[in-house]
Amino acid sequence: MPHTVRRYDALAAAKSWSPSKKGDLGMQITEIFGENTLTFAGLKARLPKSVWAELKKTIVEGQALNSKVADVVAIAMKEWATEKGATHYTHWFQPLTGATAEKHDSFITPNQGGGVVSEFSGKELIQGESDASSFPSGGLRPTFEARGYTAWDPTSPVFLIENQNGKYLCIPTAFASWKGEALDHKTPLLRSNETLNKQARRALKLFGIETKRVTSTVGAEQEYFLIDQEFFYRRPDLMTAGRTLVGAKPPRGQELDDHYFGSIPDRVLTFMLDAEKELYKLGVPVKTRHNEVAPGQFEVAPMFENCNIAADHQQLVMIILKKVAKRYGFECLLHEKPFDGLNGSGKHLNWSISTKEGMNLLEPGESPHKNMIFLFFFSAVLRAVYKHQDLLRISIAHAANDHRLGANEAPPAIISAYIGEQLEDIIDQLLNGGLKSSIKSGLLGLGTPVLPNLPKHAGDRNRTSPFAFTGNKFEFRAVGSSQSISFPTVVLNTIVAEAIDEFCTTLEETVEEKGLEGALKDLLVESLKETRDIVFNGDGYSEDWVVEAERRGLLNLVTTADALPHLIKEKNINLFSKYRVLSEAEVHSRLEIWAEQYVTTLTIEVDTTEAMARTMVYPAAVRYITELTQAAKETKELGLDNSGSANMLKTMTEALNNLGKALEKLRNVQDSLENETILEKCTDYQQKVLPALTEVRDAVDFLERYTADDYWPLPIYREMLFVK
Ligand code: ADP
Ligand code: MG
Fold it and tell me: Does residue 360's CB lie within 6 angstroms of at least one atom of ligand 1?
């Protein structure tokens, strides 16, 4: 009897995919860039001079907005949007789910007289109200007072989202409870940037520099996988959990190292060009694209921007990648670890601090040892990272990222800073009593006259460090590919603001007596003595580092369950409240939400794995076993040696029994859990449920290797990763 092999249908369909939209997308970047966003320049052109001047004070100096200004701005925005064909608007916000949320309202509403009224005033622009009781609040908002408010963020430009049937205006907003507690990612980000602004300007003043605004700058490189949708929809695990919960390692993965920076497959390139076009229209300055290490893995990176706009734009990058992929028959996987045994995806968060005039405070220049401003801010970052390793670790802690960190493909869970040879030398000179020179970076000298002499960077790259200084910015590499970059940025902004604050206080006290240079030198020596141990230029993947880090007393919070409890330590609550970034209640709410999310993620994984094992894998194995039984029996009846079929039958039967036992164990483990708090539950899930889940997976993966290929219902790694 012929079997219906749905998997082969998927393969055939994936192979024969062809684009419905052909031809060049007609990309003139300069013409389309920002077409779907009302840039500050565009807004300025539509506003009376006096109104723009008022608004600018809010945008640049963080001053409060007055309602008359808002009314005029609202009209200008509405005109712009409707001229472009928009019919609706939405307050676009970032709840603590990590994604974005929106509820659309039309610009006009039919009235009883049969006409329409215009519905968009300053009031609607500034504030929205929503019964947002389904968003996580971590106890900040009991359901009986479920109101949530959205508030316009004038510092991030509005934009239009379009599809073939229409457009709507998105207004970036903050999201808070009726008591004003932040229920989102944007509010703390704005608060932390404000704090950094205040402290950094105070520091610059000591160096004789006046500026109206300092902000952190951020550029986030996004890694992702693309697989054919035919496979995606046949994998319940990818659909519900975002990663493959079962699946045997293919004979060929990334061992040949031939994918990284390889030529981009044609269908993928057509997708990339289209996605980039959409992003350009939205004013998102994406710049580089390339193949990543694993087969089917790619990366896109933007030019850096101020942290708030960068965070909004990063959300748009994720949204557009997912949306446009479907046009090309792909599914874009943003999960940190979609495929076991292959590299996962991260989101390198490049971070620096800059004045409004564009002065990068982490630019070492030619002679960093003489660059007082650089040494000040650079040492402040090291101090911050040393003091708050736990917060940085927490900012990237979630179930998916646990599969990646420390897995010899991504930085370890131990937080340290790579700073390169030149800067380490400078620190050592300082600690040894004098600052005399900077190791010169020199020229590369490629050994042939036809190639130009390239200037050599003073610091080499080190891919194994979670937090690396790369020339004139730090690169936080442990951030996960699916997560919002806001909280990691909040942590960086806040902890560095604190270090700057401490430095300033000391400097202000000692500068008169010692002079600026003397006071700074003493201060840096003092601080670096304490924090030198955070610097590690070696191989972060090595076992030795784990031992060495422990000797240094650095934290090694291996999993999310280990990291999260540190969030509510007194030091962290005090830090966030002192700098008005998060109140104590807001910190607690985040702990609650993230712990809950961890457990929910694992629960979904368990349920999906069970369902797949029972309803897809089991039947396939049983069918094959039936066939083997018959073959073994009949071969024997014919008086022939049946060892081939009989051995296979034995192997399959045992493997199926093992799967049965593993499933039972998984259930029992879950049923036996007795935990009182959400944190205990997290630990139980990490320590007991996850290993039991892995056992089920191992049993399934064994069966995959033995079951007849035409019985196997799930698209396998080889197909998903290599068919493009
Ligand atoms: P690489 O990582 O190869 O050194 P780049 O120097 O181009 O590459 O930087 C990678 C990312 O870092 C880009 O997104 C870029 O915009 C960002 N970046 C560069 N300079 C800064 C800065 N001063 N602040 C924040 N991000 C930056
Ligand atoms: Mg990089």
Answer: yes
